[in-house]
Fold this sequence. Notes:
Layout: H1 7-19, H2 30-35, H3 51-63, H4 73-85, H5 96-101, H6 126-138, H7 159-169, E1 187-188, E2 194-198, E3 203-209, E4 212-216, E5 227-228, E6 238-241
Helix pairs in contact: 6-7
Pfam family, one: PG_binding_1
Domain Peptidoglycan binding-like: 2-36, 54-102
Amino acid sequence: MDGVFGPTTKRFVKRFQRMHHLKGDGIVGPATWSALKVRSSAPRRQSGGSGKSSAVKTLQRRLHIGVDGVFGPGTSSAVKRFQSRHGLTADGVVGPATWRALGFSAKRPVLKRRSGGGGGSSGVPTRIARAIRAANRIARRPYVYGGGHGSFRSSGYDCSGSASYVLHAAGVLNSALPSGSFMRWGSPGRGRWITIYANGGHMFLTIKTPSGVRRYDTSGMDDGTRWDRRMRSSSGYSVRHPTGL
């Protein structure tokens, strides 16, 4: 960890972007910051060694978690656990009381998780950006028959539960549906951004991401993820799409 945006860092940025279906250009712009759960208003290529980034690294070292200078969900959870153990309000906000409990001066910046913003900055509508982020969140969750149907929050998801989770994030579905119900759902034919392939026993999606159209499917999860660059035959499937998308 040297705080320098060199060739190695750029290579890892590109790898992260490809994994999250962003343009793999090595530029940490708004879309990449959003995927990292950090809000940004302008593209960045170099780390300025900001005070808050340094403070987050200090915090992460003291909490004995991975050090990346980003106050993401993992850091927030670790902070809340620490606060609970030390009788503090477990809100995930690192203020004076938490800094003191960590053994530091209270005169340090207040740190908290920042929600990702934007969504349309990668050339996709906000609803599609939300769908992609949701798909990324559960991409490696295990296949569980019936998962995602009792509640959108689940330890695992089946094919229609996975698709329902993504469509719910896009704001086009209120509750999970079984695969057979998607055979008549929405509008017929392929969509501009999302296409649904459904029959009575299985379903999958294709989503137009900034890096191209990708299949989102629980069948034969490649490398443990629902995302797959390879398409599959649509024979035997009803082809639908969310109206307007």
